[in-house]
């Protein structure tokens, strides 16, 4: 009986050690920094673009230049989401997150000082730099992996039909009361969208 108990105890310790090692795998990863944010829509047919850019599933949002922002300042740029499917799609915002800034230090402080606003607009000129935005507010808040549209999931018509695309003004703001400890912080803002064909 004692030998069986000792074997079970050793097996339990090995399971705990193995599980602990699996839990720290994220600590060994590294990511590079880019200035532009990324809009990820997946491969199910929702495409993203801005201005004259070609619509793609993973869109690098270069026109939303957040470099050299100071407290109280914001930048904004239009983002078009379009349906490439032969059937309508329903989609929702599926989180906002930084690729950098998850730990301690300036990156984390800076990530916590950012606010994001998505407003539905009809014309890209409604989203010119430093303009007041008119339209339906669809999201306002900080970086949040659980962020969703305020008014719930949205629907786009089948590709090639009216209503196959819609445009948002994406505004990124640095809080006016940002901590000095956030100086020099960097993030790569990632906007995720998820959905399905109807």
Automatic annotation (TrEMBL):
Residues 1-21 form the signal peptide. It comes from the Bacteria. Keywords: Signal. This is Ribosomally synthesized peptide with SipW-like signal peptide. It comes from Arthrobacter stackebrandtii.
């Amino acid at each position: 009986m004692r030998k069986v108990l000792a074997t079970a105890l050793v097996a339990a310790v090995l399971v705990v050690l193995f599980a602990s090692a699996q839990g720290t795998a994220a600590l060994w990863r590294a990511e590079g920094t880019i200035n532009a944010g990324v809009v990820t829509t997946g491969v199910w047919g929702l495409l993203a673009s801005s201005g004259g850019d070609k619509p793609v599933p993973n869109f690098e949002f270069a026109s939303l230049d957040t470099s050299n922002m100071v407290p109280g300042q914001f930048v904004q740029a239009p983002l078009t989401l379009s349906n490439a499917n032969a059937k309508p799609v329903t989609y929702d915002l599926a989180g906002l997150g930084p690729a950098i800034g998850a730990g301690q230090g300036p990156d984390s402080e800076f990530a916590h000082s950012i606010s994001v606003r998505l407003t539905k607009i009809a014309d890209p000129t409604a989203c010119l730099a430093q303009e007041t935005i008119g339209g339906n507010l669809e999201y306002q808040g900080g970086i949040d992996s659980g962020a969703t549209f305020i008014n719930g999931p949205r629907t786009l018509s089948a590709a090639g039909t009216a209503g196959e695309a819609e445009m948002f003004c994406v505004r990124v703001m640095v809080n006016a009361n940002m901590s000095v400890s956030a100086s020099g912080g960097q993030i790569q803002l990632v906007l995720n969208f998820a959905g399905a064909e109807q």
